Amino acid sequence: MAGKTIGFIGLGMMGAPMCACLVKAGFRILVADADPARVSAICDDLSVSPLTKDVAGEVDVLITMLPNSKIVETVLLENGWAAALRKGSLVVDMSSSEPVRSRDLAATLEAQGLEYLDAPVSGGVKRAREGTLAILVGGKETVKAETMPVLEAMGGSILFIGPAGSGHAAKALNNFVSACGLMVTVEALHVAQRFGISPEAMTDVLNASSGKSNTSENKVKQFMLSGTFGSGFSLHLMDKDLGIARALAQSVDYPLTFGRNGIDLWHEQASEVGPTADHTEMYRLLEQEQD
Ligand code: NAD
């Protein structure tokens, strides 16, 4: 992999710092995004060049870090990026996409002579900057093994899950657990406050006790109680992930007796906020008026 060229499409909250990690690890990268201002900013900041169809044949690994499956498919298949690659090149979709669609995409790309991995990430913007993301890989294990230097440039733990689509399935389930955990943590904090326990004190209790979670440790004081609501992960992207988890459960005929309430509540709240709302704003949204 050393000396390989990486094409990177999707220079948002996650894609931009992931590109910086790849450059730091010594890879040559070429970048693209629907927003030309983001392309210019990354090219200036990292001294890299734009990815264009003219140079796409130089790409060994094409990474997508885009909002959802529909956009990934549009970019690769309709916009012609897959067709512009050299046969034998690898497409790695690191977005949080839909597992069944990813399986189909893998087959479509393979029929075009390309390899495919799904490699969604967990850890948020902070770990994207540090290069310590958890990366959940689906696809052929041999391809994953060859791609380890690229993945290790961005990740702290690289977990091979299974065939194409498995990484995306695991990611959706992880976020289902994370979102439900966030909501019960937030509800506990509001109950505590009404009883006279400060949310700061209650967070300390959780962090010293069995209710500790990623939310209590890394989100409550940092982004909720501080009022910054600036984790960098949008409430709508989490809503999309919960929809993926719900569809996945339906596809295997598992009813989600407890969790479906959380998914419904999240979806309801998402309809109340604009597209840029951070997912930590759930703290504010669940702070119900007292009669
Ligand atoms: P973002 O909205 O900040 O960035 C998405 C980028 O994709 C933007 O730069 C946008 O211009 C670009 N884009 C959209 N449509 C495009 C198109 N048709 N062609 C080219 N570029 C296009 O999103 P993000 O927070 O970076 O998330 C990206 C993916 O990673 C999502 O699937 C998300 O669910 C997942 N994710 C996000 C986080 C997080 O903390 N933000 C953590 C883990 C996983």
Explain what you see:
It is a single chain. The chain has 291 residues and is α/β, with parallel strands linked by helices. The chain has two domains: 159 residues, NAD(P)-binding Rossmann-like Domain (Rossmann fold, 3-Layer(aba) Sandwich); 121 residues, N-(1-d-carboxylethyl)-l-norvaline Dehydrogenase, domain 2, CATH 1.10.1040. It contains 14 helices and nine strands. Strands 1, 2, 3, 4, 5, 6, 7, 8 and 9 form a nine-stranded mixed beta sheet that branches. Strand 1, helix 1 and strand 2 form a beta-alpha-beta unit. Helix 1 packs parallel to helix 6, helix 8 packs across helix 12 and helix 8 crosses helix 13. The longest helix has 30 residues. The protein is globular and about 65 Å long. It starts with a strand and ends in a 6-residue tail after the last helix. The site of nicotinamide-adenine-dinucleotide has 26 residues, from helix 3, strand 7 and helix 6. The site of nicotinamide-adenine-dinucleotide (NAD) has 26 residues, from helix 3, strand 7 and helix 6.
Q: Please name the CATH architecture of the largest domain.
A: 3-Layer(aba) Sandwich
The largest pleated sheet is described as: 9 strands, mixed
Helix/sheet category: alpha/beta
Strand content of the residues, in percent?
A: 5-15%
CATH level-3 fold name of the largest domain:
Rossmann fold
User: What is Rg?
Assistant: 20 Å
Strand and helix order = EHEHEEHHEHEEHEHEHHHHHHH
- Helix fraction by DSSP (H/I, runs of at least 4): 40-55%
How far apart, in Å, are the first and last alpha carbons?
62 Å
- The total count of strands amounts to 9
Mean pLDDT: 97
